[in-house]
Amino acid sequence: MTRVSLNANATRPASALVMTTLAATLLASAAGVMLIDARTARGASSEMIRLAQADFAVEELISQVVVRLDAGEPLQAGGLVFEDARGGRVFRQDAAGLVDVNRAPPETLARLFLAIGVESAEAVALADRVADWRDEDTLARINGAEAEEYAEAGVLLPANRAFSTEGELALVLGMGAETLHCVLPYLTIYSGQADIDVAAAPPALAQLLSIETTTRTDATAPIGRVIRLTAEAPLSGEAVMRRTIWLRLTGDAGAPVLVHRGEQSIGARNAAPLEQCVAAPS
Fold first, then answer.
1. H helices within 166-202, ranges in order?
2. What percent of the chain has pLDDT over 70?
3. Does residue 279 surpass a pLDDT of 90?
4. Per-residue pLDDT at 12
5. CA-CA distances (angstroms) from residue 35 to 4, 21, 29, 42, 142?
6. Cα(219)–Cα(147) distance, rounded to whole angstroms?
7. N or C of the chain: less Cβ packing under 10 Å?
């Protein structure tokens, strides 16, 4: 609140005019602050309502698609599977069509790193370091890294266990932020297989790795396999609230859906969940 300071000598009586003027100034200042606070409060309230509506919308969108998948209704096998009249969208990606960072051989990882622009020798080294991080032994591969190399670099030692999230690759020695940003959309920890299911691979990944995909226009969700659903609800003409969940249909009527994890963010409306990216040289 606005403060008014009087420097007049306390022993000198202030005139009635000065006191009246001071009172009027204080009242005007208070009224102005209250008006600004009211406008700010209304703006904040409106924004909170908009966010709450979008939050409800993405929840509703995902719920609609999950119910339809659980009912065995054929939906688009990948990409955009649902869109409502309000501009909400849901994208689907089966984990089996992605590169599993815990099971993929180093050769596959190196091909992916190379395809996004990482220099050949560094792509091979990164792939070996990923494999060294996830295996249980302490023996470094030819181009890899174990505790000694991490200690020399002064960073966290390798865990020698499976990755708990795809983003944990950020801890791998030499993994640049641009490289990780470019490969994350194509990675998973949920497929449980070394190979990529070409029928479920997104076109961008298939193009990067030069693999031929099998066209599937309609598909039910396979029981026991993880699916990534990404819902978008408009916040404005250019922004959306985006929620992504990784779920598994169990086939159990008592507990038909197992949700592994979820993420939520606000981003650009036109940003595709999967898009090709070129990593900056490290």
1. 177-183
2. 78
3. no
4. 41
5. 19, 21, 10, 11, 69
6. 45
7. N
232: β partners: 89, 242
Distance CA 92, CA 145 (A): 35
Read off the pLDDT band of 264 (50, 70, 90).
very high
Q: Could you give the angle at which helices 120-134 and 106-115 cross, rounded to 10 degrees?
A: 140
CB 235 within 8 A of CB 54: yes
**Contacts of range 1-5, beta carbons closer than 8 Å, 24 or more positions apart:** 1/29, 1/30, 1/33, 2/26, 2/29, 2/30, 2/32, 2/33, 4/29
Cα torsion angle, 219, 223, 226, 230, sign: positive
Task: Indicate if the pLDDT at residue 25 is higher than 90.
Answer: no
Long-range contacts of 2-9 (CB under 8 A, 24+ apart): 2/26, 2/29, 2/30, 2/32, 2/33, 4/29
Dihedral pair phi/psi, residue 10, rounded to 5°: -65, -25
Task: Kindly state the tokens that stand for 137.
Answer: 């032994």
Residues 6+ apart with CB under 8 A from 235: 50, 51, 54, 241, 266
List Cβ<8 Å contacts ≥24 apart for 50-55. Answer: 50/235, 51/235, 51/241, 53/233, 54/233, 54/234, 54/235, 54/240, 54/241, 55/233, 55/241, 55/264
Residue 117 DSSP symbol: T
* 8 in Cβ contact with 21 (< 8 Å): no
Report the distance separating Cα 202 and Cα 97, nearest Å: 7
